[in-house]
Specification:
alpha+beta; Glycosyltransferase; two-stranded antiparallel ribbon; 12 helices; 10 strands; 11% strand; globular
């Protein structure tokens, strides 16, 4: 009876739900199904089916299958895919690979999901895999508090402290829930909770040090930062060193979760919000228009993307902003920087998202409410 009661009590603690949010897997799912990557050890089949949110056991079984021996997960595979027996064998046969990564919202969503699956169903295998994944994340943190894009043995771009594609903030948000004893992390021992708490503190200190200042005026943060100097750093050829409104939004959202923020956190948030307001773009909207079918190195497309003047359009934020000028940046794979979307080639116009919706609730509701409560 006691064994049956535990999962019921845990399920009640997380709201009695019979499904778990799967949105954390959407980025990796998109890459597996829609991005051309012949280097993957396994490819998606045409029309490959996927499990639904209420199929928790089936999804959790996929997470257990994909988890590598080191505790992490390979990026850009669909955790919801209904795999064939041949595909399952490919995953099992590559279990010892060290191809684990945090890129494209990977690993931290699996850890969070497994914690919730254990809270819902009480299967010890989910708890054990969650703990191994949490340990993997904790081991990846640099001494300065940052997290690399890839782990273990990060190098090149994979060694950069990465905000892009949900890396550092995704990890820190999960670790914060673990440290705070969120209901779905009730399975964690006190030692791991304390390790998570320390990791979050180090992460915040690193974030504050990385905030980009121009003429002593604090702005936002880059897509990735050098792991030693902490300066904004370039990544792929179309991603120069910059200030990123998209990543700044995520960092602000994380920092205002602090109920008793330090003066340094308050100053960083206020400066970042002021900078976001300064660089917002008004009077334009982004449209997809039909275009001849084309195939590029990573994707296929039958449309183009254009900027249209529209005074009634809600404000937007550019993906990248030039350090020192606050001008929106664009670039093609050639590495040549441009200052308008029309100046880069169609491959990048259709292969990257260059604009971010204005975060109205964060800036106009959540931030003022948090600021008013700061003592």
């Amino acid at each position: 009876m006691a064994g049956m009661l535990l999962p019921l009590l845990l399920a009640a603690a997380v709201g009695g739900t019979t499904s778990i949010d799967i949105s954390g897997f959407s980025d990796s799912r998109h890459h597996w199904r829609n991005i051309i990557q012949p280097e993957r050890f396994m490819q998606a089949l045409p029309g490959q089916p996927a499990y639904q949110p209420e199929q928790v056991r089936e999804i959790a079984a996929n997470l257990l299958l994909f988890q590598r021996a080191n505790g992490g997960w390979p990026k850009d595979y669909d955790m919801l895919a209904v795999l064939t027996e041949e595909q399952k064998k490919l995953v099992r046969d590559t279990r010892a690979n060290a191809d684990t990564s945090f890129d494209n919202h990977n690993t931290h969503p699996q850890v969070d999901y497994l914690a919730r699956a254990y809270a819902l169903l009480g299967d010890a295998a989910y708890r054990d895999a969650c703990v191994r994944g949490l340990d993997f994340m904790l081991a990846a943190q640099y001494a300065n508090g940052g997290f690399p894009q890839r782990w273990p043995k990060p190098s090149g771009l994979g060694a950069r402290i990465t905000f892009n594609d949900g890396v550092m903030m995704g990890i820190l948000n999960v670790l914060r829930d673990a440290a705070a004893g969120a209901p779905h992390f009730a399975c964690l021992d006190q030692t791991r909770r304390e390790r998570a708490r320390v990791a979050v503190g180090k992460g915040i200190d690193c974030i504050l040090q990385m905030q980009i200042a121009v003429d002593r005026r604090r702005t936002g943060w880059g897509q990735q930062h050098d792991e030693k100097t902490l300066a904004s750093a370039p990544a792929r050829t179309f991603e120069p060193a910059c200030i990123s409104p998209t990543e700044t939004i995520g960092i602000v959202a994380f920092l205002i979760r602090e109920e008793r923020p330090s003066a340094a956190i308050v100053e960083a948030v206020e400066a970042a919000v002021a900078w976001l307001k300064k660089v917002q773009l008004r009077g334009i909207r982004i449209e997809r228009i039909p275009a001849p079918a084309a195939e590029y190195i990573r994707h296929k497309t039958d449309f183009d993307v254009v900027v249209v003047q529209d005074e009634k359009a809600p404000p937007l934020l550019p993906r990248m902003v030039e350090i020192g000028t606050d001008r929106a940046l664009f670039a093609s794979r050639s590495g040549v920087i441009a200052y308008s979307l029309a100046e880069i080639d169609r491959e990048r116009r259709t292969g990257s998202g260059w604009f971010t919706p204005w975060p109205g609730r964060l800036i106009e509701t959540d931030y003022p409410k948090w600021r008013a409560g700061v003592r």
